[in-house]
Design goal:
Chain A: It catalyses: N(6)-[(R)-lipoyl]-L-lysyl-[protein] + pyruvate + H(+) = N(6)-[(R)-S(8)-acetyldihydrolipoyl]-L-lysyl-[protein] + CO2. The complex is a heterodimer of chains A (341) and B (319). With 341 residues, chain A is α/β, with parallel strands linked by helices. In chain A, 40% of the residues lie in helices and 9% in strands. Chain A has a 5-stranded parallel beta sheet with strand order 1-2-3-7-6, with helices on both faces. The N and C termini of chain A lie far apart (47 Å). The chains are: A alpha/beta (341), B alpha/beta (319).
Amino acid sequence: MVLGRNFEDMCAQMYYRGKMFGFVHLYNGQEAVSTGFIKLLNQPDCVVSTYRDHVHALSKGVPARSVMAELFGKATGCCRGQGGSMHMFSEPHNLLGGFAFIGEGIPVATGAAFAAKYRHEVLKQSGPDGLDVTLAFFGDGTCNNGQFFECLNMAQLWKLPIVFVVENNLWAIGMSHLRATSDPEIWKKGPAFGMPGVHVDGMDVLKVREVAKEAIDRARRGEGPTLVECETYRFRGHSLADPDELRRPDEKSHYAARDPITSLKKYIIEQNLASEAELKSIEKKIDDVVEEAVEFADASPLPPRSQLLENVFADPKGFGIGPDGKYRCEDPKFTQGTAQV
Amino acid sequence: MFEALREAMIEEMTLDPTVCMIGEDVGDYGGSYKVSKGLAEMFGDLRVLDTPIAENSFTGMGVGAAMKGLRPVVEGMNMGFLLLAYNQISNNCGMLHYTSGGQFKIPIVIRGPGGVGRQLGAEHSQRLESYFQSIPGLQMVACSTPYNAKGLLKAAIRSENPVVVFEHVLLYNLKEKIPDEEYICCLEEAEMVRPGSQVTILTYSRMRYHVMQAAKTLVNKGYDPEVIDIRSLKPFDLHTIGKSIKKTHRVLVVEECMRTGGIGASLRSAIIDNFWDDLDAPPTCLSSQDVPTPYAATLEDATVVQPAQIVAAVEQICQ
């Protein structure tokens, strides 16, 4: 959680210094949900997120330097600089994105869960623990979108190993959840489709972890999906371009008092699980990681012009046959982007 | 043709257990055009998945499954329904390989019948090839005979790229003897239908048959048209097309999609860009009218290009 918080704070700094561009959506305040859920996963389990995906990436194990380099638009970023803030992908960590349109990642997550079931039932490739689980993260605004409902239906119909995690931070840019939703209790939409719907305090990482464990284990055993609504809050605006003028100060201070990091620190100290000094040294280590990530990203090269067309097709024969009878991709000037397309 | 497509599905699903089918009524019903008849019994309900009516979501599901190693074939019961899946086809099929920096492949096939049928009404008579053609990262092919239907579908399934295979409602009952031995058609190549010397006629899908009908008339009148079925709508096979234009110096495109922003529009631009010096006449294009396909038979006939118009156009070009 501290890594997530420090990383996002660094992103804001870098953005205002002109090192990061475009739409950047920070996760401050919601760390308990990411940590509470993703830290329970194994490597083969999948995570699908939205544009607010930096911390999901970090929780799933993507190195901070890869994420930072991606945000700086450098060739060493996890997506070679081609994705950016809203499109974090990592095949080795099974992070299936990073999606800019809300709701469009949910079917992809459903597909990953379908593939897990398929591997088990058709290909007879079973893991020792059970089915590989997929987590789909999305917000309150997405819960009014068709793809959400269509996927709840299909996931329950086929008992797919997926957990739908709603990060209800009460706001979709400037649209209050209460103004957009006829019945604002999102967890209730689970039982409407035949799956359990659970509401949890998303500012308390231990409570999130408890609920997450049950939902993930359920999915792994093949009992199907769960809808988990996490009540959480983003301390910053929707994105770094959002002036955040609509949210009332008393709402912000209410949730600031429930800061998941402060709460966990307090719990750890009170339960004598670690000393102040130990926690301070962890924080120092994390500061170093984030600093190193920035140094790495700064020092990394920008993608060269020749990278432009490289990943358009997995099979570059898709660029077609040129007038000379040869496949375009066989012309080195083509991939360097200097030949006429 | 539906049997050829079915054979392609059976062969590929037998060869590779990661190939699966996703769509409405593909399982128990056997496909609304019988392409998957009997497949659910052969391969099971998970490999031939009957979906609820949720095109955007089940296409997206296909994308997610493809990212995790499966090779889904998503059927749009009618191509027009895939307009609902445009979000997933454009943003996810086309783009994810790129935005993930090449980490994930999307070896998905999206297929279904489109085109103007017999009085099916405007919404069931759509031609989506022109809508999808700008999506980067997508390949598009249109099959027109049982032979190339089987070959192209097999190639599309084996391709690592996302491929959209356009079939035509009126061509499913075409019969043709096809080889028993396995064969594949190249996704990027066009097909020479009738070699000639006087004018190049480029066409695809159902219009191939209108062109061939017109060709009979033209031959009787003493003309010698070269007919090429472009098959690959994206990318264009500029080699076959170019070779032909360098020979005949005149080109006519006959297509079923609408005039505005259609495949013909792109094809003409590509021809002008690449073969301007070889042309003796402006590249001409016959397309469907920019009109929602009317229900009435007379109006529907007037919407699409008819053989008589093709004959007249060739006579005009060859003056």
